[in-house]
């Protein structure tokens, strides 16, 4: 115990006295904070999923097989902007009809309860009166998240008998996994995979960089301990003593955002998602344990990055400063192999295999760059020796002898370009149907609206027509599928005045004018379309028919929705032509990737700053005596260029090429998205500029140090 205490005190003292000690202290602080932040975000994500499932079950309907349920229940769908809305239509059969969680009493017939977020975001679209008279808000106990958009609508009249879409409900409290937001919920591994790929990997990279700040003095200390007979345990205790305080404070600092999220609901940036503070608060015990694991992981990385030779033939430390470990190159090869073979994996596993390969490849690509630059350094040194170029000779020898420096500097650029490229590709992912929907919206806006309704008599359709915006046309759409070998087709029926307004000929007409743009879009979406004139419009109860509304000009979607959702037997869904593809299901995923990617880029920028600052500290001390030996200050710029700028430029070019291949391969795998060469070029250009700046600042730092340099017994 006495030896352990002494070694810990040695480590604590070393952390206060080694070159660049402040830089390493703050670097380890930031690294521990970043890793703990990602770990605590993982805990919050898992807790949120558990809370969502619990609240969804509390409001889930228990369907009665008999026809004696106390409540009639039907689910519908709507949207506000491009955000989906869950609409629940209800009709209590008895005064004691059951209530779901979040509802204290059923509204009166024709009234509606709205979630707070739906009420807030739908004000501009008249959401208060869209489904009926506003009667209040749904309590948060009945929402899986405060950002959920949901409405409970009590229909004004009893639903028609025999409509199978109305379900008999006996109670609430089970099976809520298919209601509201839960209907589209991805497995918990989906957000965690994105979190660790885009933010976790940069946090670990920052930890490695911070652990190696000022590593030369630390490596010399490790070799001294080994020469004195110290074992790996003694070196570990010293290294832990040096890193324990900044890592512990950084881990504790990560609890600040977690504590804020456990006290108040937090809206998460571009996603619009509101994190429920109750879920975060309930996971405090798990968060405390996870933080301890996070701290131990950071200390483990610190210990693991300071090893010595075990062959007994040398007391020199086996640091990454002397060679590129072969296992790192093998790991990068494994990552590339996983990416290449992902296309042959089962369809559901392809994306997971691709993602794993991507993480491994980006994590170790900088080691491949270091190997290339190490060989380049040897060639530069030989060339500089032959031609008498001092800067090239010294820079080449440093590059050959210290490849780890290049790895740490290149790591930020490599992972940064990769993250930016993946964010761009993911946000560009639109399938063929989504692209067609966007094109349709650009051509005709929201002038063609589809309504999925139940049975409607002639009188009901006339009443519905009267509530539509002036000049609107009302048609029916019927789908026919005779089965193979015949192809399905669609029949659109309407009064002659409505068909003629669309430039569709009625019996006896001789007009040959081209059909309207709306009809052209219908044919693009429905395929084979036959038009028929009917004197009156009705809707059959067999679910083969739906209504089409064609408005005279864009901007009437909200008015059509209000007319449809306030029918005696309201529509289940109202959307524009191709509207279910217009708000792509991948848009929320792209927002989450953007959120995680921005966090990861912040970590990478911090890692790059720490690494560059550490190199400035090292190079200014090492280069200062050269002004005396050479008599020229220009040598600083020359050595910095060949040792830092040239290898980083090579890393930038290699990274750009690998990123382009990786992005194109990903698009070919998922059959969606596009590569923005402008974004990629901007990323490569930025990294090239950073390479030039790093070399210039290093030379400047060395020149300033040279002015005050005096010989010392170091």
Characterise the protein shown here:
The chain is α+β, with helices and mostly antiparallel strands. It is built from 24 helices and 15 strands. The strands form 3 sheets. Strands 1-7-2-3-6-4-5 form a 7-stranded mixed β-sheet. Strands 13-12-11-14-10-15 form a 6-stranded mixed β-sheet, sandwiched between helices. A two-stranded antiparallel sheet has the order 8-9. A hairpin with an 8-residue loop joins β11 and β12. α2 packs antiparallel against α10. The longest helix has 41 residues. 45% of the residues are buried. About 1% of the residues have low confidence.
Record the SSE blueprint.
Layout: H1 2-17, H2 21-59, E1 61-63, E2 71-80, E3 83-92, E4 111-114, H3 116-121, H4 127-130, E5 133-137, E6 150-154, E7 167-172, H5 189-211, H6 215-227, H7 232-253, H8 255-263, E8 266-268, E9 273-275, H9 277-282, H10 284-304, H11 326-341, H12 347-387, H13 390-401, H14 403-427, H15 432-444, E10 448-452, H16 458-466, E11 473-480, E12 489-494, H17 496-501, H18 517-526, E13 529-533, E14 545-550, H19 557-565, E15 573-576, H20 579-582, H21 587-623, H22 626-630, H23 634-670, H24 677-708
Helix pairs in contact: 1-2, 1-7, 2-5, 2-7, 2-10, 2-21, 5-12, 5-14, 5-21, 6-7, 7-10, 11-12, 12-13, 12-14, 12-23, 13-23, 14-21, 14-23, 14-24, 21-24, 23-24
